[in-house]
Every structure is written in structure tokens, then in C-alpha cells.
């Protein structure tokens, strides 16, 4: 089951940090990629790519594609489309169905106002509670429910940096790059 | 068990939206208040107060107090201090202990770099995974684990606006204020 996050309505000035957090949460909580729809924002993309480079794993970042085209293509290939919104149905009622379906999942996460047509385009409109809070939190809770908490224990391949859990303070392991090591041997 | 969130290192220009999300998540996920430590930012505080006014519940917002003083006072009154950091111990190992202790909890959520002294001041340094992601997500997952998912079903007293869950679209219930009704009757 492949999970992608589609960020809708990103405004570079206003949303750059929130969208970066959305991307980081997508990666850290087990999604395989982020789609920055209908816009290009190289700053956000660069800062996400830097994290992937250092902390490992495979995480695809696509920008500038049409949201609607991407959604339609996703569905054509048999994937489900899920829109996170406080107006939707409670996550706990829908999540068992989503877990069992095993279809690829595209999760739409909007900035402030999402046009009503996306509510209709989505297979599911899902609420993480019905209070105003944060798309960053909504995405994290959704993925945590979908993967049943296992996502916090994922290993990221080819990480240059890793954290060693620690009671008081910071412990970081830095790894020598495989490629560099090969070059030296040659 | 009272839970407060202490936001550390807030920089008004850079962090205003992230800190607002931290405050909204604190409220929506069952905390009783937010402390904006060592700084005043009326814009953030106003936008949070507006949400409380419309969406109900009791949520205290304190700004400009010294982080260290607040932490020390909290502990003097028998409360626990928890710092969320990717360098800490895995949340799932610590959370049963925290649930059982029933002590009031102060959750420290830092902006980019938290001085190492706070790692020592905290009773617990807790990681929501060990990947870089978002303090907004970390706070949401922590509170969701602490309250075992029940927080998504909380009722907020005196709400003027409420959402009615909906499959496609938005349903909002607006309530007439109690006070206004009384005034009319008189």
C-alpha cells in the first residue's frame, strides 16, 4: 500500500513553514511522497530534499502538477482519495475500512480554505476531531491510525544521521557514506 | 489531571503560524492551557482567544512569563514536566507511567533549537519517533496517546459553532448565545 500526500492551496509566503511540516510529517509517518499541487516552491522542496538526503529513506517530492489531474490519475490506477477536513466523518469509524482495503492512498491536506469540489472528488472526507486545529496534526494522527503506531519504529535506509534515544540530552550517530567509502577504496 | 503546554523559543515573525497551530492542537487535544514563555505576541494570543470564544471550552492562555519560573512553580505544586524532543525516549515506553501517575503535566514544545538545560530540567524527554518532523505533530500524537484517543470526542462548553460530521461538504451549527437570549427576554 503506497501512501502519498497532496498539499493543496499552498501560498509560498504564508504557508512555507506549515507546508514544510506537512512534508516532514508525511515522510516521518510512513508516506512515500508529497505532491505540492498547482504551484512551485523550490525553497520548501529543497528543505525537504535536504532532510531526505541526511535522514534517509525514499521519499518522492513532486511539485507544480495539477491537483485535479493528479487525483484523477491516482484513481485511474485504482487508488483511493482521502481528504482530511474537520467537517468530515470521524476517523475512527472509517479507518478499519481503509486499513483493510489495501489500495494506494492519496491524502489531500489543504491550506486554509479547500474548494467544495474537492469534498466531492474525494472518496472519503475524514475528520480528526471536529475542532479547528492543524493540518499538520491531522495528517500525523491519520497516518498514526492507518499504520497503527508502527510508523514510529520505521528504519530509514541510507541515513547519514540517526538518533540514539536518550534520557537527558542528544545522541546522534553520523554514518560515513557508502559511496564515499567505495570511492576511497577505488 | 491538568495538562498545560509551554511553548519555548517562539519568534514572532518566523513562528507565528506554527505557534498558533501548537495552541490550537493543545486546545483541541485536551490541554487546559498554553504558556507562551519569555515573550509576548498579541497576534497569536488574539487568534487563539477568538477560536476559544467561538468554539467553546475553557482554555487559558498566558504570555510573557519566564519559562524557568513557570516550570519551577509547576513542579513545586506537584506537577510533572515533559519535554517533547526527537532525541528523547520513545513515547510508547513512557506513556503508561504518565497515564498512571495522574499528576498535572506541563508539556514543553520548543521552536527550532531548545537549550540543553531544558533537557535536564524536564522529568521526561520524550520522542515521537526519532525523525525530524514537527512540534505540532509531536504534541498531537503525545496528547492522543495520553488520552488514548478519547480527546477527539470531547464536548466544548458554550460553543457558538459546532460541526456536524458530514460525508461530502460542510455542516455547521451556529448557536444563539445564552446571554443574548436573556437580554432579549428581559
Strand and helix map with partners:
2 copies of one chain form a homodimer.
Chain A: E1 3-8, H1 12-28, E2 33-36, H2 42-55, E3 60-63, H3 67-76, E4 80-90, H4 91-101, E5 105-110, H5 116-121, E6 124-127, H6 135-146, E7 161-163, E8 172-174, H7 178-185
Parallel strand pairs in A: 1-2, 1-5, 2-3, 4-5, 4-6
Antiparallel strand pairs in A: 7-8
Helix pairs in contact in A: 1-2, 1-6
Helix content range of chain A? 40-55%
* H/E series of chain A: EHEHEHEHEHEHEEH
CATH superfamily of chain A: SPOUT methyltransferase, trefoil knot domain
- Largest inter-chain interface? A-B, 54 and 54 residues
Mean pLDDT of chain A comes to 94
Query: What does the radius of gyration of chain A come to?
Result: 18 Å
CATH third-level topology of chain A: Alpha/beta knot
Note the total helix count of chain A. Answer: 7
Name of the CATH first level of chain A:
Alpha Beta
**Count of DSSP strands of chain A:** 8
Cα separation of the termini of chain A: 39 Å
- Name the quaternary structure: homodimer
Shape of chain A: globular
Q: In percent terms, what proportion of residues of chain A is strand?
A: 15-25%
Instruction: Return residue spans of chain A where pLDDT drops below 50 for at least 5 consecutive residues.
Output: 181-186
Structural category of chain A is alpha/beta
Major sheet strand order of chain A:
3-2-1-5-4-6
Summarize the biggest pleated sheet of chain A: 6 strands, parallel
The CATH level-2 architecture of chain A is identified as 3-Layer(aba) Sandwich
